[in-house]
Amino acid sequence: MARIIGSSIPNLPWEEKPENFRYPVWRYSGNPIITRDNLYGANSIFNSAVVPFKGGFAGVFRVDNISRDHTLVVGFSDDAINWKLEEKVIFKGFDPRVCEIDGKYYLSWVNLRPKGTTIGLAVTTDFMEWEQLEDACYPVARNGVLFPRKIGDEYVLLIRPCDKGHTPYGDIFLSHSKDLTYWGKHRFVMSPVKNWESTKVGAGPTPIETDEGWLMFYHGVLTSCNGFTYSMGAAILDLEKPWIVKHRADCFLLSPQEIYEYVGDVPNVVFPCAALADSDTGRIAIYYGGADTVVALAFTTVDEVVSFVKEHDLLGDK
Amino acid sequence: MARIIGSSIPNLPWEEKPENFRYPVWRYSGNPIITRDNLYGANSIFNSAVVPFKGGFAGVFRVDNISRDHTLVVGFSDDAINWKLEEKVIFKGFDPRVCEIDGKYYLSWVNLRPKGTTIGLAVTTDFMEWEQLEDACYPVARNGVLFPRKIGDEYVLLIRPCDKGHTPYGDIFLSHSKDLTYWGKHRFVMSPVKNWESTKVGAGPTPIETDEGWLMFYHGVLTSCNGFTYSMGAAILDLEKPWIVKHRADCFLLSPQEIYEYVGDVPNVVFPCAALADSDTGRIAIYYGGADTVVALAFTTVDEVVSFVKEHDLLGDK
Amino acid sequence: MARIIGSSIPNLPWEEKPENFRYPVWRYSGNPIITRDNLYGANSIFNSAVVPFKGGFAGVFRVDNISRDHTLVVGFSDDAINWKLEEKVIFKGFDPRVCEIDGKYYLSWVNLRPKGTTIGLAVTTDFMEWEQLEDACYPVARNGVLFPRKIGDEYVLLIRPCDKGHTPYGDIFLSHSKDLTYWGKHRFVMSPVKNWESTKVGAGPTPIETDEGWLMFYHGVLTSCNGFTYSMGAAILDLEKPWIVKHRADCFLLSPQEIYEYVGDVPNVVFPCAALADSDTGRIAIYYGGADTVVALAFTTVDEVVSFVKEHDLLGDK
Amino acid sequence: MARIIGSSIPNLPWEEKPENFRYPVWRYSGNPIITRDNLYGANSIFNSAVVPFKGGFAGVFRVDNISRDHTLVVGFSDDAINWKLEEKVIFKGFDPRVCEIDGKYYLSWVNLRPKGTTIGLAVTTDFMEWEQLEDACYPVARNGVLFPRKIGDEYVLLIRPCDKGHTPYGDIFLSHSKDLTYWGKHRFVMSPVKNWESTKVGAGPTPIETDEGWLMFYHGVLTSCNGFTYSMGAAILDLEKPWIVKHRADCFLLSPQEIYEYVGDVPNVVFPCAALADSDTGRIAIYYGGADTVVALAFTTVDEVVSFVKEHDLLGDK
Amino acid sequence: MARIIGSSIPNLPWEEKPENFRYPVWRYSGNPIITRDNLYGANSIFNSAVVPFKGGFAGVFRVDNISRDHTLVVGFSDDAINWKLEEKVIFKGFDPRVCEIDGKYYLSWVNLRPKGTTIGLAVTTDFMEWEQLEDACYPVARNGVLFPRKIGDEYVLLIRPCDKGHTPYGDIFLSHSKDLTYWGKHRFVMSPVKNWESTKVGAGPTPIETDEGWLMFYHGVLTSCNGFTYSMGAAILDLEKPWIVKHRADCFLLSPQEIYEYVGDVPNVVFPCAALADSDTGRIAIYYGGADTVVALAFTTVDEVVSFVKEHDLLGDK
Amino acid sequence: MARIIGSSIPNLPWEEKPENFRYPVWRYSGNPIITRDNLYGANSIFNSAVVPFKGGFAGVFRVDNISRDHTLVVGFSDDAINWKLEEKVIFKGFDPRVCEIDGKYYLSWVNLRPKGTTIGLAVTTDFMEWEQLEDACYPVARNGVLFPRKIGDEYVLLIRPCDKGHTPYGDIFLSHSKDLTYWGKHRFVMSPVKNWESTKVGAGPTPIETDEGWLMFYHGVLTSCNGFTYSMGAAILDLEKPWIVKHRADCFLLSPQEIYEYVGDVPNVVFPCAALADSDTGRIAIYYGGADTVVALAFTTVDEVVSFVKEHDLLGDK
Predict the structure, then answer these.
(1) What is the ipTM metric for this complex?
(2) Local structure of F138: helix, strand or coil
(3) Count of the separate structural domains present in chain F
């Protein structure tokens, strides 16, 4: 049985799997958990990142305001379901990911620069004061996701280079750094393979360390005649050489099927940006954006998801 | 009064037209009749084909699985509304049409070949064992629909050539064959004319023989600023020279208006692939895909639809 | 406090702002007020124009019929909410605006010409007999909106030049005319600036004269990976030199958030074409198309909207 | 025999037609007559306009400088072949046309405005002092060409609306004005018909009045897999209703065939902007740009060209 | 040593290989052999087909006239270098191929149909009277090339399906027919592999039978930032199963390098449509279009070319 | 007077400026200096890099072979004009730059990786043995150019991120590294501003150190209706903070004007990749690709070019 390596989160939000439900990931019945009504001046709140913080939870939230500017704000919660968002914008940009490394909280996000987006990096200990680091790259890139610990003596960052528009391609790479300032030893991780992700793939939540490898949820994009459809897949990366994909599901684990995923500012989007994982129970709570409009929540366990990925292993197809 | 030429289907599914409803085609109140819940592992079930079979009904169903692979499976039903689908994939591909010719059941579908889609052909007598024939064409084509009997001494196949993407054009042609292996005498049938179908048109269900000509339902596609919209139209083709269009409605007969047509994997799609027609009553049950996600059912009678087409005759506009 | 300059409309439709609602424009609870069911043969009724007329209200309505032809029909109403539409098509084309100047009613609309759309102009006194004037331009243009009085001794027309497709740009210009036949002294008014309108902008209802300037509602378009999103903004133009923008909100005032705005023939569209403004109370009722399918109604007051625009003044950002 | 209506130009540049040459338009053996060497700082000099002036000739020349800015400068010549260009830029923009009306010289050109090109208008009596008039339109348009006299009591301007890029369409329209400020009564003149011009057409030199009608040389554009090819055609317009095309050659009269037309900044361009026509002899000298790099000269006679157009009359094909 | 299977052509045009020239195909020093000057009214003459005929040579020539209409005319020659072209258009269309089968001459070409191009077929015995057969396909296709004898009891046709524009893809397929009317058993032959042909490939001259297999010259297209570049490659197909590629050069054998290939109506085009092969000497004369403007000639021998293909065998790379 | 900081190159190739020539950069009269004839199997040789080496010169040359594969080979020369190229391919890829830092020769080039191009880095002391370093970035980038010395204690690399096609944008950035493995502190340097470079800009030769700053030649790209035109510009960067542009010419210094620049595999390309600069005389020899087909040579002096840049200073326009 697969096991999560990491801290316990006894107050991880949870709801049992519906009876007779046969897939490994199930939605929270109270979805969406965050909407534009959570903050005055918000057009939409989605694609957001949460972590355990001081016995409760903190998060960085993508708030597109009524100018459709992309901003990041901080929020706090006791139960990781009901969130109180701050009004103050901490950074311009979108699609934040947050992870704790050695007691500090690192934020990576899609930073808006005049010549295109980069991966912004910042660090905090209290979610109030933030120190902005050097951008991890020049434009244009998205989906920068840090691993939650150094591997060897290096920080590792998943990243998806892109173009200046609605990029029709996208592969996951990773870069190494000794100091979060200079990055190198770039490695290819994975490309789109199956139909459901055939346009592009990009890393999602901070990878979850398990005894089987890094569990990486990611989004894959399919292009229909009416635009992009974003779904969530999963892969397991080698613990020490994380650019080696050990297993990878040949199918999505979550795709737009509910009205708050089908309908909204961008129809047909399921976009995961964070996951809470409890090492005691193996429970995982996944936070994802719905239709670029709301934040929703889904559940799985490390064992269900690892079993499912290995059972539907794309690499076994070869 | 128009009359269907063909067999009787006493157990054809049916629901009377709603009172005060003034259009010739009306939806089944229990729509959608098939959803992803009908088969484990299905992302969506839509654009499917049914025929009377041994006193009940059989069909070939488009099942896009959770990899978004396109597959065809067989299903059976007593009432043509509640369907039991088999798990076994009979062919890769999509958008099946089925027709009976001389006691055999012929399947034509969009066959996936490495260099693009072709029209695959296969034949069965029991829906269990299938013999695959030569593809009817080289890539790229879609919407291959056989007429339900030889015309003269030749099989006739409606077909819509296309390109390798979300083709922005599409005309209906037909080809002749003496043996279902070699095809020739290709004839142009029809092009988009009116706004509702201005991007492309493609044949839908197996044409229905009537004393007025072949009743051909087809789909037409309009391109809005948000992508394609698929609706259903109807035309009447000459019985002996089916490339001659005798009448053609200048408007759609069914377009996306219900939530299961507006919302789904591909918003705004009504895509007919099969029709059951009872020669005793003139009743017609049309099976169509909704939003590339579900199978839905609509009704008309040969008389209503032929009258409507002649009343709104595009060719009378000339 | 801002004040409307113009006639009183004591029977202007009205509904109080919901409690705790903090934005300046709120929707009518009975939305949508007009659907395809209002007229046999209509596929959709939207983007329409209304004016006070003989103690009640008259309007010109965009009806796309079931061929998806674009037509204009006349309608009448006592309360400006329940409308009776005539079957007769007065002109081919779409997106009408109507205004009264010196006791005559002028219609401007997107006129369909063989080589692209122009701004058609017509005049009536009774909404029954229409005199068509010269088109205000050669192809291709849209969103031609007359000011409701001469400025100096000239008629003034807002206009948005475009290309022959789903134009990816759009700026608002205006032209002057002494006789509604010859137009010149073309002036640039405004371009897209903020994200919510970053693809293009176009004038909406007939501008409303206020003591602060002309209140111009307009639509702005954002391009997501799934197509265009239309929202409504507002600006205040100089009374005598209306090409000078005095204030302009840096955000939308209304954007697609309700199911009838998110879902329909063209998802995610809020498109205002008319507004009734009562000089006695300062109340304003805005008529807008929802998802290119229905007509909906929203409310504000001149004071709320002018205050909001000045508070969120884009020009103050400079 | 066709006859030019207009003044005599005894010093019109001329070279006899080469023996055995069977087409109606022949090139000057000294081509190109103007190159970048004519002016320091010029990247290219092309698409320029000349008129008889004070016994010699004056012109307005398109000079793209080494920043590739588009500028207009004035030049003078005794023989209309050897030109002396002034350094001073009179206007920003390109593709000038010049004509004399009632003793004044009018310049129309593609004027650079922040939101796209318009048709600029200016007037001079001496080619030194220029008075700029109102632009004849809002953006985006090109190829504005005035008729050399009022028709009725109105000025008439040929114009080709376009989009903001390398427009893939283009039709010739015309507008009327009583005062060169306000324009209206826009009329469609002609569209692409034959392959050689199948992408777009635009007016060239000032139309030449003949007893058969206005002789209008124009450019037509074909799109090959390697871009646009510009050639020159000819049509004859009704003298009093110049939007009526009386005759139109179904073929080009001049197309890129010489190295200075095939090779340069934009390969494969023949672009006529001016013509001198001598009513005494019927001789016509056509000035055209070669490959967007140089000015070249070609000859014909009114009789040859009118005969050729009538012989190859596209309208006779109907 | 490779050997041609076929008739002898003692008067095959020939020029020895230049000294020190190390590539297998060399140009005729008198190139181009046919230009627009060969026929009044021609804009360009290129991409043409020749065969031995009654001791001399006959051919079908692509003549784009000065309307840029695509036409085919017949020509005759004693030496296969100096050609006399007929004025009469035998068919509309382009890119002809001619081959003799059992004493009759078959023409295949890109036939212009209202809905796109097809492969036209016609037969003659004297190049004066032509019988047109059924088109070999519905639109859209190009590059239909017949093998010069039946294989088994079937005619075989190489063909390249395409879209309606400047198609960005292209694979070679072949079809079988017993009667030149009905075609089937479509087989994939080859796709682009190397950079020089990375956009698309299409068959060129009638394949030449050799003891090593069918020698097929073909064109390959590369897309630079300035459009398409057409070069010539070669492959050897199995004699009995011609869809099996036995050898294929990994490089071009001829590419645009001379001014008449670099410069013309479509820059950078070498497009072979015919080859004469003498079984006595093994000499081969290849006719190809230069820059879509002229006909040029190049030479090789069966031994040189077969050796070269095997030496640079793409299939050996695997 | 501007002065080159660096070593002397007494045998720098040189030709005096033609009399009366008024621009700062002039071509070598023997151009092109390298063609496909320099190496058997080459389709084209262009965009290449040279440096002084052991009293003579060495270089790395882009050789596209007859498969149109992109390869790099080494060459040597005594006079820097007549080159002997090695057959051995040292790396796959294109557009090499070479510079000496501390006695070693560093090569940066556009490295071909499965998911797009990166900047490859390699080092040699003898041009025979090469050590490949880590790529400087993940895909997709081009135009990686090292500065010829550390600035502070960091290597600095100019770079132009791009997309996977013929990228329609391009800005120059630079990155810092302490070890040539990890890169960071990415800084924006410059974007297209003027028409001649309006599509994109990219660094050219290794920057030349002068007492005025780093002299950076770069290429700028304009998009005409027939594709891209590449010209050469120049800017002067701050010596210590090289992302600060001190001066920048508002015009090109060299653009396609000669037949070997206008005509070839990619028409209209001047693409500089290397420059030799002699500190004794201030003479500079610039090596550039012509039409993606040949290598050509041009001359200037540090004083002429610095004066010209300052005289035409774009930044002075502000």
Answers:
(1) 0.95
(2) coil
(3) 1
